[in-house]
Amino acid sequence: xxxxxxxxxxxxxxxxxxxxxxxxxxxxxxxxxxxxxxxxxxxxxxxxxxxxxxxxxxxxxxxxxxxxxxxxxxxxxxxxxxxxxxxxxxxxxxxxxxxxxxxxxxxxxxxxxxxxxxxxxxxxxxxxxxxxxxxxxxxxxxxxxxxxxxxxxxxxxxxxxxxxxxxxxxxxxxxxxxxxxxxxxxxxxxxxxxxxxxxxxxxxxxxxxxxxxxxxxxxxxxxxxxxxxxxxxxxxxxxxxxxxxxxxxxxxxxxxxxxxxxxxxxxxxxxxxxxxxxxxxxxxxxxxxxxxxxxxxxxxxxxxxxxxxxxxxxxxxxxxxxxxxxxxxxxxxxxxxxxxxxxxxxxxxxxxxxxxxxxxxxxxxxxxxxxxxxxxxxxxxxxxxxxxxxxxxxxxxxxxxxxxxxxxxxxxxxxxxxxxxxxxxxxxxxxxxxxxxxxxxxxxxxxxxxxxxxxxxxxxxxxxxxxxxxxxxxxxxxxxxxxxxxxxxxxxxxxxxxxxxxxxxxxxxxxxxxxxxxxxxxxxxxxxxxxxxxxxxxxxxxxxxxxxxxxx
Length: 552
Prior knowledge:
Blueprint: H1 5-15, E1 20-23, H2 30-39, E2 43-46, H3 50-64, E3 68-72, H4 76-79, H5 82-91, E4 95-101, H6 117-120, E5 125-130, H7 137-151, E6 154-160, H8 161-164, H9 189-197, E7 201-205, H10 213-223, E8 227-229, E9 244-247, H11 254-262, E10 265-269, E11 284-289, E12 303-306, H12 309-315, H13 330-344, H14 353-363, E13 369-372, H15 376-384, E14 392-394, H16 405-414, E15 420-425, H17 426-432, H18 435-441, E16 447-452, H19 457-465, H20 480-486, E17 490-494, H21 500-509, E18 514-519, H22 533-549
Parallel strand pairs: 1-2, 1-3, 3-4, 4-6, 5-6, 7-8, 7-10, 8-9, 10-11, 11-12, 13-14, 13-15, 15-16, 16-18, 17-18
């Protein structure tokens, strides 16, 4: 029996190593769904919303580094994919999006659910095509996979339903071998001279340094450089290591800010950190990145090196320094940690959110995957979930999309047997909570912790900083624990501080998926490590307004 285009699409994905495809059936992709059924070698994951499909694919790709796939039917089904695909684009992870389309003879007729998908997906995709000839199907899917994998981003292919049903010949000449190795050789002498002449070097790492813990530690100890990290760098180095000062930026630590302020050399490895206000003017900088376009994109790099972080760390051998610059910040780091512990160990009610994050860290597996949603919960996860290097942290670091926590945990859980925990705010939970049904249907044992403060806490904070009154951020929430139970999932709820430890232990001991709702203090401010004049003015305005209100 001859293969159809839809058969070839699925067979090609399977041959390239794609393990699953997330989506919802629909008329224009029903031939594709049937080919998945007949093939049996690729897992179909039925989601409850296409945004969830794209987010699940994106977070699977974040965890594995390998391309994942999602699909949507013509019109609205495909449109719903876009937010999750922008997550993949901005995080530079490989995702293949397949979208159904009306019959080719109806294109241009303003037919039911006809949308110009190639135009719509053009910005989010680094490869964007439509299968027009049946014998071209294998090449287009292979090309989509290749572009997504090599370019680290989204490939999109539109599939008209009549083309999917056509017979297709496979191109036996296609070669599925991997990409040839790229020579990232550099001359290490320039970097060595700059490091040798510096007295106060700082290592600043990001996602590009993942998997290089030993090499980072070795260089740090050799030259006495404190290690700080961007959001995507969390978990690469041990937060408890004296050399490690924490994150930089609005979510970072005071010790990191102080180290950068005093540095005479900043060595940036695998990060294109966006918050320029936290980088000092005039400090000499070495920047290392595999993407030439990231070099000098936001600030001047005195030495820009196009290579992998691994190649840099193995090639550059500066002299050892007797004076260890990281020793200068131990008091600052200890003071910062002690300040954090006051909230982490507080027995106050409502429960402090910092304590929830610290309690999760205390009882979680040492190698758990921690998916942290966007909002105040990002701050608590970044600062108060301190750990060694066996945890893996997944954020929405560049898009900053609310609602990634639950689908992100589902996607990650399909790709690992490790414990998967999602830290989610109540606003984010409500956006994508129906993906809990996906977890239930496929027995994905994700553990979701809802930080319920009955408001959009980060927005409240931003309003205060800008000098505006708190307005429009209060949330009318359901009982999240009861909602989970209605889906056949273990639902737990903690309202008192003395119940928290037992609640977390029970959550993590549950065999299947489970939700723990924790009522937390909505007035807890995620104070940045450094305040700008605008932020100080906003706080003064907010506090003065509160004092006035007390008199009325």
